[in-house]
Every structure is written in structure tokens, then in C-alpha cells.
Design goal:
Strand order of the largest sheet of chain A: 1-2-3-4-5-6
Structural class of chain B: alpha+beta
Number of helices of chain B: 10
Radius of gyration of chain B: 62 Å
Oligomer: heterodimer
Largest sheet of chain B: 6 strands, mixed
Distance between the termini of chain B: 53 Å
Radius of gyration of chain A: 14 Å
Structural class of chain A: alpha/beta
Helix content of chain A: 25-40%
Strand content of chain A: 25-35%
Number of strands of chain B: 20
Order of helices and strands of chain A: EEEHEHEHE
Helix content of chain B: 25-40%
Shape of chain A: globular
Largest interface: A-B, 34 and 42 residues
């Protein structure tokens, strides 16, 4: 199990407008099983951490034997357009490598964001 | 800089701390004064307790010494009375007297000499004697007076006499019969001490004993002090012991400290210790004050740096906002029959301006197009992507593409994997005469349709994915904007609240729209922004199109 999250202080000096006092998301790789690499995400995924999320997801997908990346959003409470963009980037990267992205366990409030942005129909969901 | 904290004025410094800053030496002086006061008080208290203890110990020891003297005094009388009893029984016998007194008379014994006298008229006749020659001449008037004294007192007579440098205490006992008088002398050794004085009760004391009540040197019996040191002054205790027809007055003063070394030195230790502690406290306070001053000076430096950084961010943000505004249409084109109002509000925070935009294009005499879009992410990069999207879409629309075609073609021009940005866009192409509007949506929040009466509803436009995702296609929907109806398009900054379900946010928008007056479209947009604005981090673009009930004069 690899913890791909990074603590806020490792992200360098906080720029003005950066998130202070908000819940930092945690990205936890659950390893590869039957070709499926699972990344559990928790917290709020927004512009401040979208790049971290993409990096964590790509690292998880690159693990040996992984043909599918399963991103478990069960514990994600908020997803902004940058977070959505991050998922699309990961999806496109997966396709380039002949792999697939499955988004799992999306809570209803976050699912509505997928729906309203037209991404519900073009991304693959599970659970 | 809302979350990292706008460097406002420094927090108010409490009054005490301000005084501290003004005069650290005054604080140090106050600490020193308090410390020294406490030290002096505790030293005084300890010294007082020690003094009282010494007085009590002196009193106790002197009384013990007096008890020793009392016991010694009692030993004096017994040989005298028993010798007297024998003489009365034998009616004057020199040999018997010598025999009875022998154990008590001699060098290093209780008496130096003794004699027995029979009353004879007014005078006395010597019957026998033992020991050294008496200091008081047997035939002297002094002896006669002294022996007579013994007859007049209920107990024995006592006196101290000095002959040359020889001091003696003399006794005369007449008993109850007053027929015989036994006389005895006790020599006081040259050092002034008697054996009883060597008792441990005297160990801690300097003392002097006097016969009688006075402490004149003439009455001095014994002492351990040179005569030059008498009478005893200073701390002394005086007590009296009955002694024959007189009394023995004992005056004592401590040789050293009766209570022991610790209690003697405790006041001094407290004084020195307290002074040292006070000095230490002063030093600590001084250091604290000084480090506080330096911390405050550091805080001031940091504050001014923050202000500079803030100012620089402000300048940078100004540049970004000016760029953003420069990319928005300075004025909306005149479209006969359609009233247009728009507003752009930059996000509240820092330089991270967003990539929101709106645009109205007049395609021909009848047709017009409008766009409201939002590039994900913030900053100059987002603004650059926004500018590209805006002008690309404008070109496709001017080229006669339908909204869906324009979006599909534009979609090819953007790739989120290349620049990390995607854009949600609502595109509409309308006919000013018929009010027919065709909408296509790339992941954008649904517009609001407001009836002439003010009722509002969301227009659920089938939504394709945002531009830049490279996914999907864009269906269209066509609606007719009736005269008096208004279509409101906006970016998500208007509605989105962190932690709130987006449908709840949209519902709030619809209800808020219904509360606004539509008399003036410009004021409608302004008051809608006021009502929905949440000091959010995101920027907001709002575009409202109202189909007028009366056509403008410029219409054909």
C-alpha cells in the first residue's frame, strides 16, 4: 500500500488564495488486484490539488499489471472543474496506454456535478 | 489574500505590554524593588524569630544554671546545721567540731575554714576551729557583727568579703537555739569560678553571680569573665536564687549562638539568597523584555514585508484583471428587439483570476450569437485559454456554424492533456425577429428562462462534455424567447458553493432570479449578482438577453 498523498508543507510556499484550513484530500493506492489498480481519494478535490491527484492517479495506473485504474471517490465531498479536468486527463492518459479508467462509488452530490458538466455520459462509472 | 490573512494593522498590544515596551528598565526596577522588599522582609522576619528563640534559650539556660546554683546552695547549710547540732548536744566541744567538719573543710573542699562560737553576753567566744586561717579576722569587729547577724535572721547569714585579691563567701549559722554560731568561709578561686559553675548548665553562658540584689562589683561572687567585662551588658538574663539571709543574683549572657549555626546564619543566607534571586529575576525580565522588543520589531518587519508582497500581488492582480477585462467585449453590439446586459466580477482572491467570459456576436441582420464560457483553473494561463476559446468560437460562429458544430470544431482545438485546462461553454444562436434560440452546451450550467411575469425556470439543455476533453458530441435544443422573456446565462461562480449540492445551488438561483425586478435589465443583472455573490474565490460572468415587447425604431 503506497500513500501517494503529500502533506501541505511539501507543496511549497502557500500562494495567496491557497487553501489553508480546508480539508486536504488524501490519495491512497490500494495496489493491483486482477489487473485493477485502485486509488482511493478522500476530501475535497479542487484547483489546489488537481495536479497532485493526476500525478497520484498516473503513478497508480503505472503499477505493474494494471490494465484498469479504479478511482474510488466514496470519500470525496467536493469536486470542482479542475478536479473534473484532472479525471478527464487521467482518462485520456489511460486510453493512450490502452488502459481504462473506472470511477467508483461517487456520492450523489458529486455525481450531479458529473451530470451537469456532461461528463456523466462519457466517463465510465461503477457502483 | 483572505486565507493566508490580509496583513492588516498589527494586533492591538495590551496596555501592560505597551508600557513594557516603553520602559523595560522601569519594569526591571520594579522587579528589583519587589524582590529586595521580599528579601528584606523575610530576612527581618527570620532574624526576629531567631532573636526571640535566642532570648527564650537564654532564659531557659539561665534558669537551669540557677537550678544548679540552688542545689549547690542547699549543700552549704547541711554541714553547718549538723555541726551546730553536735555542739548543742555536747555543749561546746572543739574536737567534736573538728571531727564533724573535717569532711567539708580543706583545700579543694567545700569550705576553706570553719569555726564555732558560743554566745557570751554581748559577744562571742571561739570554741574551736578547723582549716586555713580565716580571711575574716576572728577578733575583728566585722566578725562580731557578722556573727550577730546570724542571730537575727531565720536562716544563715551570708556575705562576700575581699581581702587583698582573695575573695571569700562567708557563712554564719546560729540554728534555732541561737546558743552557738558556726562560721565557715568558702574561697572563691582566683579565676572566679566555683566547682558548681563547671556544670554543663553554664556551658553556653557567660555569667556573673552576686550576693544580694545589686550587681555592683563589690557584691560579685563568681564570674567566668574578666572584671573589665563586668557588669554584663547587651543580651542578658537575670534571675535570683535564695541564699541564706540574702540571695544570689545570676546574670547570664550567651557565649555564642544558643540556637545553633543554621538559625544564626539563616537571616544572612536569606538576605544573600534573596538578593541573588532578585538579581536573577531582573536579568530574566530584562531578557524577556528585550526579546519581546526584538520580536515586535521582527513582527513589524514581517508586516511591512507582507504589505509589500500584498502590494505586489495587488499590482499583478490589477494587470491580470485589466487583461481579463480587455478580452471581454467593451460594449455589446446593438441587436434590435433584444436588450442585452452583462457583468463580469473578478474572484475575490489574489492574482488567481479566472477564465470566465461572455460574448455577443451579431451574425447578420436577423441572427445573433452569444457565448458564456468558463475555463477551468485560474491565472494568466486560464485567461489565455479563455481568449483562444472566445475568438475561436467567435470565428466559427461568424462563419455560419450552428452552435453544436461550432462547439464540435472548437473542441478539436483544445486538449486538456496539453495545457491542463478545459472549458465549459454555453453557445446560443438566435433570431431577433422570431425569438427562436438554438442552444448547445459543453458542460456548462443550465441557463435560466424568466417569463414576462417574473417566473423563472432552468432550461435543461442536453449537455456534451467540456471543450478540451476530446469526448462526445453536442446536441442542440431550440426554444422561443417570447416578448418580455429573458434568458440568463452565467458561469458556475454565480451558484457554486463548496459543500452544497449543485441542484440546491441551482434551485436557489431560480428563486433568487424570481425575486429581482426586470424593469431594467442592467439593474436586474447587478442586483442578481449582489444577491448571489458570496465573496467567492471564483470569478463570475453573467449575460442576460431580454426580448423586447416593442421593437426598437432601428428594426426593419
Amino acid at each position: 500500500m503506497t500513500d501517494l498523498s503529500s502533506e501541505p508543507e511539501q507543496r511549497g510556499a502557500l500562494a495567496p488564495g491557497s487553501r489553508v484550513g480546508k480539508e486536504w484530500p488524501v490519495f491512497t493506492s490500494q495496489g493491483v488486484q486482477d489487473g485493477v489498480a485502485t486509488l482511493e481519494v478522500s476530501g475535497e478535490v479542487d484547483i489546489a490539488v488537481a495536479a497532485d491527484f493526476v500525478a497520484a492517479a498516473l503513478a497508480c495506473m503505472a503499477e505493474p499489471g494494471a490494465t484498469t485504474l479504479r478511482v474510488d471517490l466514496a470519500a470525496v465531498t467536493f469536486l470542482d472543474s479542475s478536479g473534473l479536468g484532472g479525471l478527464v486527463q487521467v482518462r485520456n492518459a489511460a486510453q493512450e496506454h490502452g488502459k481504462s479508467l473506472v470511477i467508483a462509488n461517487v456520492v450523489p452530490s458529486v455525481m450531479k456535478v458529473f451530470t451537469i458538466t456532461g461528463l456523466a455520459d462519457v466517463l465510465t462509472f461503477d457502483g | 489574500m483572505a486565507e493566508t490573512g490580509t496583513p492588516g494593522p498589527l494586533p492591538r498590544v495590551p496596555q501592560f505590554a505597551r508600557r513594557l515596551r516603553q520602559s523595560p528598565l522601569r519594569v526591571v526596577a520594579a522587579v528589583a524593588a519587589v524582590g529586595l522588599l521580599l528579601t528584606v522582609l523575610s530576612t527581618y522576619a527570620t532574624a526576629k524569630v531567631d532573636y526571640n528563640t535566642e532570648q527564650r534559650l537564654l532564659q531557659t539556660q539561665t534558669k537551669q544554671a540557677a537550678a544548679v546554683l540552688t542545689a549547690a546552695v542547699q549543700l552549704v547549710e547541711r554541714p553547718l546545721t549538723s555541726a551546730l547540732d553536735i555542739q548543742r548536744t555536747l555543749d561546746g566541744d572543739a574536737a567534736a567540731f573538728a571531727k564533724s567538719m573535717r569532711p567539708y573543710v580543706g583545700p579543694d573542699k567545700q569550705f576553706a575554714s570553719a569555726s564555732v562560737w558560743r554566745r557570751s553576753g554581748n559577744g562571742f567566744r571561739l570554741i574551736g576551729s578547723i582549716g586555713a586561717a580565716p580571711a575574716m579576722k576572728p577578733r575583728s569587729a566585722a566578725m562580731k557583727t557578722f556573727l550577730r547577724q546570724a542571730l537575727s535572721v531565720p536562716t544563715y547569714a551570708v556575705q562576700v568579703i575581699r581581702v587583698g585579691d582573695r575573695t571569700s563567701v562567708v557563712f554564719a549559722e546560729a540554728g534555732k537555739a541561737r546558743k552557738f554560731v558556726v562560721y565557715a568561709e568558702r574561697a572563691v578561686p582566683p579565676d572566679g569560678r566555683t566547682p558548681s559553675d563547671r556544670d554543663s548548665a553554664f556551658a553556653g553562658l557567660h555569667y556573673a553571680t552576686y550576693i544580694g540584689r545589686t550587681t555592683d562589683s563589690a557584691a560579685l561572687a563568681t564570674t567566668d569573665l574578666p572584671l573589665s567585662k563586668l557588669p554584663i551588658t547587651g543580651d542578658r538574663y537575670r534571675t535570683e536564687v535564695p541564699f541564706g539571709d540574702s540571695q544570689l543574683t545570676l546574670v547570664a549572657t550567651p557565649r555564642g549562638h544558643l540556637g545553633g549555626g543554621l538559625s544564626e546564619h539563616l537571616p544572612l543566607m536569606l538576605l544573600v539568597g534573596g538578593a541573588l534571586l532578585t538579581a536573577l529575576a531582573c536579568r530574566l525580565v530584562f531578557q524577556v523584555v528585550r526579546s519581546r522588543q526584538s520580536a515586535e520589531s521582527d513582527a513589524a518587519t514581517i508586516s511591512s514585508l507582507y504589505q509589500r508582497v500584498d502590494a505586489m500581488y495587488g499590482e499583478q492582480r490589477d494587470v491580470s484583471v485589466r487583461l481579463q477585462r480587455a478580452l471581454l467585449p467593451p460594449t455589446n453590439p446593438e441587436i434590435p428587439g433584444i436588450e442585452v446586459a452583462s457583468e463580469y466580477v473578478a474572484g475575490a482572491q489574489g492574482v488567481d483570476i479566472g477564465g470566465d467570459w461572455y460574448s455577443i456576436v451579431r451574425l447578420d441582420d436577423e441572427q445573433f450569437a452569444f457565448v458564456v464560457g468558463d475555463v477551468s483553473g485560474h491565472g494568466i494561463d486560464a485567461v489565455a485559454v479563455m481568449a483562444r476559446a472566445r475568438f475561436t468560437l467567435r470565428a466559427y460562429l461568424l462563419d455560419g456554424n450552428s452552435p453544436d458544430a461550432a462547439l464540435a470544431k472548437c473542441s478539436q482545438q483544445f486538449d486538456i492533456s496539453a495545457d491542463g485546462h478545459m472549458a465549459t461553454v454555453l453557445v446560443g444562436v438566435g433570431n431577433r425577429s422570431t425569438g427562436e434560440i438554438t442552444l448547445a452546451n459543453a458542460g456548462h450550467p443550465p441557463p435560466v428562462l424568466v417569463s414576462a411575469a417574473g417566473a423563472a425556470e432552468l432550461v435543461r439543455v442536453p449537455t456534451g462534455p467540456p471543450l478540451g476533453t476530446g469526448l462526445g458530441t453536442y446536441p442542440t435544443v431550440t426554444l422561443t424567447l417570447e416578448p418580455g422573456e429573458t434568458l440568463v446565462a452565467y458561469t458556475d461562480g454565480l451558484v457554486e458553493r463548496r459543500g452544497e449540492d449543485i441542484e440546491v445551488s441551482l434551485d436557489r438561483l431560480v428563486r433568487t432570479v424570481e425575486l429581482q425586478s426586470l424593469d431594467s435589465l442592467v439593474e436586474f443583472v447587478a442586483s442578481l449578482l449582489d444577491a448571489m455573490h458570496d465573496e467567492g474565490v471564483d470569478d463570475i460572468a453573467v449575460l442576460a438577453l431580454k426580448r423586447l415587447t416593442r421593437e426598437l425604431p432601428s428594426a426593419p
